[in-house]
Design a protein that fits this description.
The chain is 42% helix and 17% strand. By secondary structure, the protein is α/β, with parallel strands linked by helices. The strands form four sheets. The chain has a seven-stranded mixed sheet, sandwiched between helices. It has a four-stranded antiparallel sheet with strand order 12-15-13-14, with helices on one face. The longest helix is centred in the N-terminal third of the chain and has 25 residues. The radius of gyration is 33 Å and the shape is elongated.
């Protein structure tokens, strides 16, 4: 498949897998919608209906009691007297309509009671009858307010495109470093997937992430980092091109199935590309050669337990020192855009602007800085 780059006219040829999960579930795709916030826990519909019915019966019973106690102030056109059945009849037609005039309050006290008590009960009864409509309107207004407040307060968040196995694992790793659920927005073309994400407490956007309007609903232009975990490599390239156009400064990380598609993603503006199939294969090969080494590697990429591989800035006390003189085990030094190995003479002495890739013992304590910028340790 050829993909045109609008910037310089280049054509990308992307190798596609045969079939994938997204293609199999194409019937679940829907038109783009607005962002969906996690829903609050509410009563079941049957329980809500039962509550409203009980409230309506209580209002009716209160009205019957008021009319019955003041029955001498009412006149029945049929026989002139008001009994219990007449009180129930009058209360029912009064609450549900304006009445038929066959039973009327003629005493001053009865009329005053109608104005002060019966009329408010009638209004309350009508509110209960149309409660479903009012609740929908109220919920929509409340939801719009929550959505507007969410958009206003959202800054430096993480957008995850695709909530499959790769996307979930990436989110699990970020959560282990201290990133809050409120700082994660998920974009997926499946309504069912977004409903699952909402149930787990994440904000979701249903739609095709290759379209800029969908990414704008996820506030991607204000995001700090973007994770592309789509099922298809060509989709990942298009998402990367769109995301980079909307946000020039965000860190973009993407996963691909085929290793030969990785250069295309880098040309699309992706900062780091992970080849899922090749990475899994290398880990399998390493585990065959040395099961213990494979276990250590698995531990390193699983944040929050055992050993963690973290990136952190150089602190002032480490400036001018050798990489081996730091408290943590330094693997590499990031100087500008150059990654220097720990054994490279150019890695030492450390500079204040350097960043260190270190292996540290996982801690249950919360990180001392924003996880997006690397975990800082004294």
């Amino acid at each position: 498949m050829g993909l045109g780059d609008a910037a310089d006219g280049r054509v990308f040829h992307v190798k596609l897998p045969g079939h994938d999960a997204m293609a199999r579930h194409a019937d679940e795709y829907v038109a783009p919608t607005r962002a969906q916030l996690p829903r609050r826990v509410v009563d079941r519909p049957a329980r809500q209906v039962a509550k409203r019915l009980m409230m309506a019966l209580m209002v009716l019973a209160a009205t019957v009691l008021i009319v019955w106690l003041d029955r001498d102030g009412y006149h029945d056109a049929a026989d002139g007297k008001v009994d219990l059945l007449d009180a129930v009849y009058y209360s029912t037609v009064t609450l549900s309509t304006t009445g038929y005039g066959d039973i009327t309050p003629y005493g001053d006290r009865a009329r005053l009671i109608n104005v002060v008590l019966v009329t408010p009960l009638r209004v309350l009864f009508l509110i209960i009858l149309v409660g479903t409509t009012l609740e929908v309107l109220t919920e929509r207004t409340r939801e719009d307010f929550r959505l507007k407040r969410w958009r206003t307060n959202l800054r430096d968040h993480t957008v995850v495109v695709g909530f499959g196995t790769k996307g979930r694992s990436a989110i699990q790793t970020l959560r282990a470093t201290g990133l809050k659920k409120e700082q994660i927005v998920i974009v997926d073309p499946s309504t069912k997937v977004i409903e699952i994400a909402n149930a787990e407490g994440f904000v979701g956007v249903v739609g095709d992430a290759t379209r800029s309007e969908v990414l704008l609903r996820a506030e991607l232009q204000k995001a700090r980092q973007i994770i592309i975990a789509t099922q298809r490599d060509d989709t990942a390239v298009l998402v990367a091109l769109t995301a980079r156009q909307l946000n020039r400064g965000a860190k973009i990380v993407a996963a691909v199935r085929e290793e030969e598609n990785a250069p295309l993603l880098r040309q699309s503006g992706v900062d780091a590309v992970i080849t899922s199939a090749s990475a899994a294969g290398r880990l399998l090969g390493l585990s065959v050669l040395s099961p213990s080494a494979g276990t250590v590697m698995e531990d390193l990429i699983q944040q929050g337990s055992g050993l963690d591989l973290v990136e952190r800035p150089v602190i002032k006390a480490e400036v001018g020192k050798n990489v081996r003189e730091t408290d943590d085990l330094v693997v590499s030094v990031l100087r500008g855009h150059r990654l220097i190995g720990y054994d490279d003479p150019a890695a030492s002495p450390l500079q204040l602007t350097d960043r260190l890739i270190t292996i540290v013992r996982a801690s249950n304590e919360p990180p001392l800085s924003n996880p997006a910028a690397g975990t800082m340790r004294p």
